[in-house]
Amino acid sequence: MHVKTRLTPALILSLAFSTASVALAQPSPTIDKQAQALRKSRTFVALQTAITNDYERTVREGVTLTEIPAPTFKEEARAKAFAQLLQDAGLQNVEIDAVGNVTALRKGEGKGPLVAVIAHLDTVFPEGVPVKVRREGLTLHAPGVGDDTFPLAVLATYARALAAAKVRTRADILFVGSVGEEGLGDLRGVRHLFQHGPYAGKIASVIVFEPAAAGQLINVAVGARRYKVTFTGPGGHSFSDFGIVNPGYAMAGAMTAISRITTDPATRTTYNVGVVSGGTSPNVIPTQMSMSIDMRSEDPRALEALEARLRDALDQAVAGENAARSTLKGSIRLETEVLGDRPAGRTGKEDPLVQRAEAAMRSAGLTPRYDSASTDANLPMSLGLPAIVIGPGFSAKDGHSPEESLTLDPAHDPLNIATALQVILLQTGVEHP
After folding, report:
1. Helix intervals (H) in 17-75
2. This prediction's pTM
3. Domains of the chain
4. How do residues 216-248 score in pLDDT, each as one tens digit?
5. Which residues pair with 122 in a beta bridge?
6. How many other β-carbons are positioned within 10 Å of the β-carbon of residue 274?
7. Is 29 exposed, middle or buried (0-12, 13-18, 19+ CB in 10 A)?
8. Residue 26 pLDDT level (bands cut at 50, 70, 90)
9. Residue 277 scores a pLDDT above 80
10. Are 70 and 185 in contact, with CB atoms under 8 Å apart?
11. Would residue 136 be called left, alpha or beta, if left means φ above 0 and alpha means ψ between -120 and 50 degrees?
């Protein structure tokens, strides 16, 4: 039965703040109106003003956090600094959990499911890499400045802006600075958050902040599996033991075979041998050689198929080397160690969270651009929770490089920061906007 209803601004906002798990019967046009109504509200104007007035502080705090080294597994100092920012912003229950995540709660009216807003604390850079920010005009140069440090500063800005504008959300907001997002961290922070920590089973939807551009909307999680593969053999002298099996040759054969594996571009399935190690001297047949392999795909089945082909290539390389040379002193053996297993996932475009993000971007004059990535959102997506990745809209480049930089735009950055906050508020709901 169809009931025609007049959409008053109050009703539009009420509809927007229904639970995230229910699919909408009337998708984009209605949600677009909801986003426009919120953007024109007194509440949102007050938020924009607070964000604009706080912009220089956001930049200062982003620089301060950037200059605190935070390699994966060693995020403690940055975690303490970020926790203090959230404490100073007036959030409740500010804690550092058992694995190092910073969590802080902003209580709503208790009329909606818990929304988690996450940025990661760690960077890809090891200890010893200089992280002093070098400023040239409006451009900030430093490893990790964009990925993911400035988004952390923006979360603290949001907490202050919500307080300054006296915003009452329907749902609670959980602010999270996660550990172990990068590399060998293997999402250890969000694994604990969603599966073992005090908020496990309580979070209903997730908005992850990364250095995404304004209008970029990531709703597909790229799955990743990483292995360390070790070839071992008897070893010996390069002259007197010439002719025995060599782990280096076995590994070279495996690398050659892997390099010839073809993948379907439609599934964005990739692989890479990124680290090789082993041996002691040019005149020693090594006893051990190792390589680290990274595999990624948007499609879980394609990732499994790639892994099967890679394992075949490894087994054949070992068998080939054992057949090609003498095994009188011993044969080549293969050991594999899992370094990381990030699940793939997807939040459909029909999900209200995705539609609300789209609508917020359109209401700001942006054209949403869908994308995929491997982030903290992988984990909640794999658990069936609505999750997306957006950014505060800074212009960042050369991520994961020592040449990483972020260019400030004081005229537009506050607007982009506010638009990302609009996504959060459309998901949580606002009382009397």
Report:
1. 28-39, 42-53, 55-66
2. 0.88
3. 29-222+344-431 (3.40.630.10), 223-342 (3.30.70.360)
4. 999 999 999 999 999 999 999 999 999 999 999
5. none
6. 10
7. exposed
8. very low
9. yes
10. no
11. beta
Residue 327: what are its φ and ψ, rounded to 5°? -115, 20
* Residue 30: band (very low, low, confident or very high) from pLDDT cuts 50, 70, 90: confident
Strand boundaries in 344-426, DSSP class E: 345-346, 369-373, 387-390, 395-397, 405-407
Token look-up 């902040």 returns: 209
Please report the sign of the dihedral spanned by the C-alpha atoms of residue 113, residue 119, residue 122, residue 125: positive
- Three-state DSSP class for residue 208: strand
- Can you tell me the distance from the alpha carbon of 348 to that of 363, in angstroms, rounded to the nearest whole number? 21
Length of the chain in terms of residues written: 433
Task: Report helix, strand or coil for 235.
Answer: coil
- Helices 55-66 and 413-428 pack at an angle, to 10 degrees, of 90
The average confidence (pLDDT) of the chain is 93
262 contact partners, CB below 8 Å, separation of at least 6: none
Tell me the C-alpha to C-alpha distance, in Å, between residue 165 and each of 45, 86, 264, 363, 399. Answer: 9, 17, 50, 21, 34
Q: Which residue, among 302, 385, 300, 303, has the nearest Cα to 347 in the 3D structure?
A: 385
The two structure tokens encoding residue 176: 């999270």
**C-alpha span between 377 and 224 (Å, rounded):** 13
Cα 399 from Cα 203, distance rounded (Å): 29
Compute the distance between CA of residue 12 and CA of residue 310 in angstroms, rounded to an integer: 52
